[in-house]
Amino acid sequence: MVQNDALFNVNWKLQPGVSIFSTEWKPDTETRVYEPVSDNGYKLTASGIHKGQPYEWGYTALYDGKDHPVYGRDDVDAIEAYRINEKITIGFFKKGGVLGGAYARKTDSDSLTVQAGGRRVDGTPYYDVVVYKKS
Q1: What class is the 12-134 domain?
Q2: What is the pLDDT of residue 4?
Q3: Where are the domains of the chain?
Q4: Using CA atoms, how far apart are residues 17 and 4, in angstroms rounded to an integer?
Q5: Under 8 Å between Cβ of 36 and 42
Q6: What is the DSSP letter of 44?
Q7: Per 3-state DSSP, what percentage of the chain is helix, strand, and coil (rounded to 5)?
């Protein structure tokens, strides 16, 4: 299966005015870069500013249904990813082997939308819709 060229090697810049965050985590800025890993995976690097402090997190995952390590986040330590088609990917974030939340990522020619939902460590639910544009 050929990777989605529209996703890769682009600086995806957060669009805060159209993004919806249900938690206190609302980045001031964020950029995502996806790089292909063979025909069956990708590397994500997310970096930005939150409350004046820089951050970076990411992972390298294959679309194989197995856990892959996530670095730079306290709330998750692994991701399990699946490719639905060339524009849609879904997955599950985990912490200590426990499912915490699901995500869906969809691309088109100039935008990237990431939906994430689940429950926080305290058990309360969250649902975010985060929109990015090519920069």
Answers
A1: mainly beta
A2: 59
A3: 12-134
A4: 27
A5: yes
A6: E
A7: 0, 60, 40
